[in-house]
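Checklist before submission:
- one chain only
- standard amino acids only
- sequence pasted in full

Submission:
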Amino acid sequence: MRTFGLSLLLFWLLRSRTCAFGAKVNKHKPWIEASYHGVITENMDTVVLDPPLVALDKDSPVPYAGEICAFKIFGEEAPFKAVVLNRTTGEGVLRATGPVDCEIQKEYTFVTQAYDCGAGPDGAGWKKSHKAVVHIQVDDVNEFCPVFREPLYKASLTEGKIYDSILQVEAWDQDCSPQYSQICTYEIVTADTPFAIDRNGNIRNTERLSYEKQQSYKFVVTAFDCGQKRAMEDATVVIDVKPVCKPGWQDWSKRVDYEPGTGSKQLFPKMHLETCGGPLSGVKVMVELQTNHIGKGCDRETYSEKSLQKLCGAASGSTDLLPAPSPSTNWTASLLTDSGRDSDLIYRFDGRQAANVPDHVVPQNLTDQFTIATWMKHGPSLGLRAEKETLLCNSDKTETNRHHYSLYVHNCRLVFLLRRDFTQVDTFRPAEFHWKLEQICDKEWHYYVINVEFPSATLFVDGVTFEPYLVTDDWPIHMAKTDTQLTVGACWQGGMVETPRFTQFFHGSLSGLTIRPGRIETQKVISCLQACKEGLDINSLESLAKDIKFHFNPAQSVLVLEGEDLDSINTAMTKVSYINSRQFPTPGLRRLHITTSVLCFGEDMCLNVPDIRAVVLVLPPSEPRITIAGSNRLVRPASDLRSPMGVAPFKELHITSTVMKGDAYGGARRPGVMELMHNLDYCDVLVIGDELDPERESLEVHHSALLGKHLDATNSTSGISIYGVDSMSHYEQTLRQIRYRNTRPASLRDRRFRLTCSELNGRYTSNEYNLEVSVLHHSPPVEHVNHMAAAQPQYMRPVHHPLMIHTLNTHMSGPPPPAATVVIVVCIAALVVIVVIGVYRIHATHQETSREEEDSVKEPEAEWDNSALTITVNPMETIGGGCAVDEEVKEDEREEEEEEEEEEEEQLGSVTSIESDSSDDEEEEEDESEAHDVKERKSKLEWDNSTY
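Returned file contents:
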């Protein structure tokens, strides 16, 4: 502007001078600056020039000659034109003739000249200025977004390292100016990624990555230009994490599902050890199956202690001091049970519970040989001076406080006290046996067995033998008449205190506490009783390499493999399996722990292989549904109930077990019901209502029914219990042979029983099968005789019936007489005895009662031999109060009476009596309605000969 002012001043001076001196017309050429610089914003049409476009002419103010008429542009296709704004002043402007795009061309350079208007109005004689250079720059507009050169970027890194730059992403912008075409920032759009990006697009990791945690990362990045315009499409970045070569097991699963009943299952079928190529001299692997959280340390059978002993072949005679609570074993009812342990009968003692064992249960014949066994879980004792914790104690009940024998824990030591009575030898004898073991206070289940062969005692813990580290001698106990009390969970202090009480309480859990007097337990039986039903196994032992050494611990919960060749070790590990031989295993997790030691040449340990922790998930088994079916009502004549063998209430009983099979765990089988054969461990027959009257009732099973089976039986007035692990068919056979007898059934209306069976000590129970036994009562024969005599006395005639008395001899198979006939004969026999022997009637009755258990069956009113006796009965004399007896016995009359009875039986629908001998096949059940029909059809007879 300053230059423009000086030029204008000079122009007016020159023009004034020309006028003053009478200058010639259009004497001078126009004048412009030598160069111009301009700026135009793209998509605009006006150029801003510096200096402004102004042409001066010295001929001014002469018209035309001093005026500027045009500016001309010279250049290659310059998209501009010059326009004169004021001819007098010579001002002009540059305008774009079309769209100006910076992205096409950022700068333009061309030449311009100014032209005056000439000497006259026709423009003739115009003059032109010198050429001036014009340089124009196009200003950019931020019209484009950044664009990434690649839509997807991939890179990889090694785990455990921090990188300055893993890869670089790049975006560009079509804008022409540095301001808008330059990418100023990059950003990671995905949240929570362990990566960062700088303004140049370099991506780095912000933390050390782990291949085991995550093998690949995928995230999105975007870009911004310097005008803060964001990329329309973001870029995706994928970064793979590569593991470093470090020693460890590869290709193993953290969880293995095990379906019950599938046998042995491989745990690591594709497992192999990575050693990074280092030279090895040996590998040692230890696989440990951890099951201490299940039941009594692992999946063991949960049958009762007696059943387990029988399964393992233990000698009979042991006494279970912690049985399941029942009416006959009620001393354990007040103890705390550890429920939810898959029916394991576990008692928990918290220092306040104890139980007195009844005197009739306590073994009274402890000799120099006996065995005490128990399952125990115990932790460290509380306090610095811990008190004794008694498991089992036999002490004086009153007066004194002597301990005859006891088993207790003191400061993680197991102590067995045995005080013998004075005998002929008055000397010191071993009295206390001490064992100090870690197992006593490790809070785990262990099986303890003490075999006493006085004066020595041996302890077995989980089948391993331990000798006492200390044996203390003491004087024998003086003989006394004081009764003793056997207690569990504490010791009874009955003497030298104001109030008898328990003391030395136990803190822990016990199960299966037994005493077997008279003999010690064998190592084989002890191992069987504590054996696990689950453990580790190796498939195809013959396929293992010869250089592989392996061994299991006794419980098969620990497997150790050793070898020099890596491939052999890998092959052996793929064959390690889990097996559970229980038909109904405990569902849940079993933990696996694998430790590895690698030896190199010349070094003890050259590689550090991380431990492996995995689990075996035992799926829930298909639960069986045990069903007991049969008749719910049994009606028998009184004579059958009175017979020595009684009746068989459960003769028609059937036991079945079904399971639901389906594809709940991904199997291919279709859902459905299938019958399953398995063992039972007890069946209880309970008397519903009043207990049995031992003077006239009994419910028992003969010992012969148990022969050849793993079964035992106990009975009482409340019922009968059959126990032992055996098949359902054996239980079914035994239950069918249970006999119920009632010597005076006349007073019995009905007797109800309830039967339930169990598998796995109550884990699976059957339905409650209820059975009612009723007596088939007879109608009094006198009433019928009186009625017929009053109505039609002229038609009465004597009828002869033989008296048939059955014996228990199995070789006698003759047909039994109808029950009504027996009743009539009994009545006649009674009257005959009264007439014949008179005052001896009562005496004869007592004699007959005393002989009920003999081979022949006699009626209470008289004694009869087994010969046939023909009796003639006169109904008219019966009405008068007496019974006539024909003293002459004739064989042909007997046959005639038998023929008449057979005809009557055919007319009455073959009504038969029930023979009460030892054969169950001759037992038949009659319905009361049938007996009622028989009574109606025999109304024409002199007396009712039906069995109703």
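Reviewer check: The first strand starts at residue 35 and ends at 41.
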